[in-house]
Amino acid sequence: MASLSFIIGIIGNLISILVFASPIKTFWKVVKKKSIENYKAVSYITTLLSTSLWTFYGLLKPGGLLVATVNGAGTILQLIYVILFIIYAPKDKKIKTAKLVALLDVGFVGAVIVVTLFAMHGSNLRLTFVGIVCARLTIGMYASP
Length: 145
Description:
transmembrane helix; transmembrane; SWEET; transport; 6 helices; sugar transmembrane transporter activity
């Protein structure tokens, strides 16, 4: 039988996935109109950054299955949103968005993973480092809109 904390964690994950899925209607309109209109990509890019690193944290953490799965789902959804944004953005916004994605979602995430795995020794140090980075980025993610 599953523990109460695991069941509550599953409920929390379902709610979080609904939050990550909330822009689906917006992106459905973007696809139908083939235009991003006045939408901005920053919140999707920062959420992709945050969910990517929280997924990594969940994979590092023993017993981090719930953290890894919910943020893995969030990463997939945010990646789809960012790709759709780039597809339907005018050329100037497409280039700016792609640069920001390359810098933050590829470069920064990659740097954190490389530093964590190759420059830090001991699981507690790795978890603390990634946890602090994730906590700070989560604040930035929610402040981005």
